Amino acid sequence: SDKSPIDVPSPPPPSMTLTQDELKRIAAYKAVDFVQSNMVLGLGTGSTAKHAVDRIGELLRQGKLENIVGIPTSKKTQEQALSLNIPLSDLDAHPVIDLSIDGADEVDPCLNLVKGRGGSLLREKMIEGASKKFVVIVDESKMVKHIGGSKMALPVETVPFCWKFTAERLRRVMEGYGCEAKLRLGEKGKAFVTDNGNYIVDMYLEKDMGDLNAVSDEILRLPGVVEHGMFLDMASTVIIAGELGVKIKNK
Ligand code: 5RP
């Protein structure tokens, strides 16, 4: 498959520096160009996806899009979409989604992703995995050589029951990569609870993972693990907004 970037030149004037949030908005608006009337859309979660949902709401309000059904990947996105009058449904009613648009925490050169630092990885993976097309929107800071490297954590959603036991099993599975497993904390120092009532264990790795599929299988085999944040071979397209313009990478 062709992974070479197609450059869409849109450089800002030399004197102007764009903020990270402006870059996120540029990527999001570009992705919404793929949206057509009558589509079932997976609506992502996070500060980048929020711009895409805003834009879809705006186009619906202006009558430039019609008959859209949104499938939100989190309660937060559901609230945002409802406030914009985007009609919503779920995977039970719409098991096949035309297009999903979502952000990512890391993207590697093969378009493998780490997601879930916002905590919505399970619903995101279910919905984006059921999509005919999955468009990922990022600013250029999210591009990495290897996902799950030392910079940030790989999130794993676990059941709350004896989470320490599960975190220790996870740590042992990942020991070869210099792993530290930490429970994600939310408000008032209490465990962060996902939309599904679960916890997140963040895996901080010192070394790059080798065979991502093998690591994925090992993690998913552990009882107590619900899902992890590696999205392997799922993205169809990644839209990367940078200071010098927008790049679109296709699988
Ligand atoms: C939430 C996610 C987000 O897409 C990811 O964390 C990127 O977030 P942001 O767009 O705010 O940088 O996976 O679970």
UniProtKB/TrEMBL annotation:
GO terms for biological process: pentose-phosphate shunt, non-oxidative branch. One of its GO terms (cellular component) is cytoplasm. GO terms for molecular function: ribose-5-phosphate isomerase activity. Its EC number is 5.3.1.6. Keywords: Acetylation, Isomerase, Phosphoprotein. It comes from the Eukaryota. InterPro entries: NagB/RpiA_transferase-like (IPR037171), Ribose-5P_isomerase (IPR050262), Ribose5P_isomerase_typA_subgr (IPR020672), Ribose5P_isomerase_type_A (IPR004788). It catalyses: aldehydo-D-ribose 5-phosphate = D-ribulose 5-phosphate. Pfam families: Rib_5-P_isom_A. Transmembrane segments: none annotated. Pathway: Carbohydrate degradation; pentose phosphate pathway; D-ribose 5-phosphate from D-ribulose 5-phosphate (non-oxidative stage): step 1/1. Catalyzes the reversible conversion of ribose-5-phosphate to ribulose 5-phosphate. PANTHER family: RIBOSE-5-PHOSPHATE ISOMERASE, RIBOSE-5-PHOSPHATE ISOMERASE 3, CHLOROPLASTIC-RELATED. Belongs to the ribose 5-phosphate isomerase family. This is ribose-5-phosphate isomerase.
